[in-house]
Amino acid sequence: MKLRGKLGIATLVVCSFVMGLMTSLITMRSMYVRRNVRDAGSIEDSTPRGRPGIADYSFTSVSILCWVMTSPDNLFKRAIHVTQTWGPRCNKTIYVTDETPDRPFPGWVLTVPVAHGRTGLWQKTRAAFTYIYDHYYDQFDWFVKVDDDTYLIVDNLRYFLSTKRTTDPVYYGHHLKLPSETIDIDLHFSSGGAGYVLGKEALSRFMSVAFDEKICPENVTLAMSAEDAMLGYCLSQKGVRIGESRDSLGRERFVLFQMDHFIYGFIGDWLPKYIVNNFTTGMDCCSDYLISMHYIKPYSMYTMDFLTHHFQLSSRSKDHYYRVGGSDIPV
Fold this sequence. Notes:
With 331 residues, this protein is of the alpha/beta class. Helix content is 36%, strand content 15%. It has helices spanning 2-36, 54-57, 75-83, 121-136, 154-161, 200-209, 221-225, 227-236, 259-264, 271-274, 298-309; strands at 64-69, 92-97, 108-111, 142-147, 151-152, 170-172, 175-177, 188-190, 196-199, 241-242, 292-293, 321-324, 327-330. A hairpin with a 2-residue loop joins strand 12 (321-324) and strand 13 (327-330).
């Protein structure tokens, strides 16, 4: 009995310690997010260490509007972390949801009156592009749609688009196709999770058929289950093709999953049925000039931001300094 009593007390102490530790970690994480969430208007683009690169010079010459597909449930769970990482690097970033947030959000929120949940994704996509076309078509060259768990390397996207013409009937992303057993037509599209990019001509052609029920029917299974495939179908009806977005070595720039899934080969059984271009796993899975990754956890957004915009290898540069207040100071 005495031994049981001691074990019971020990167990209680350990449980209390673990619960206390978890509470502390949760509290610290909450404090971190609250401390680091700033007004979107005050956020400046991160300045990498080292000399300015092509992205610094092309911010205005390659103008990009990004819109982030989110929801009332995920606006403050996922999308808020985009505002603190890659979001401000687009020329303009819009967060599209279907309910007005109940508290201030540090980003530009567009609320569209569509059905909540997955069945409303096509209506949300169509409504977002309609608003963007009506208000921003003349102000930007390229229009990018991503999910709220996508990490976008905007510098590399600008570099990629700097050699493309926004007047061509083409859009870019990770090229997929629907398996023949799911649909009786040869339907190719760009993955919505990895993000897709429309130029002015592609967006204009989409808007010419977006509400044409004979060409882009709203109440079909495809529209209610796969907004990216539905967009691909509508664009194909107007002669908009999927452009080549892989690098010169045939490696993907827009990645469907987290990087470690492709590196270790955790890609699932479904992907080979949808994939168009051959791909490999391991360290050569993806382009060195990666543009996007999908299924990124909120805390990993900050890790990716550090690795892409702060981390430096001393062997790759002769300029070892920090840029602070317009001055260079030694590392």
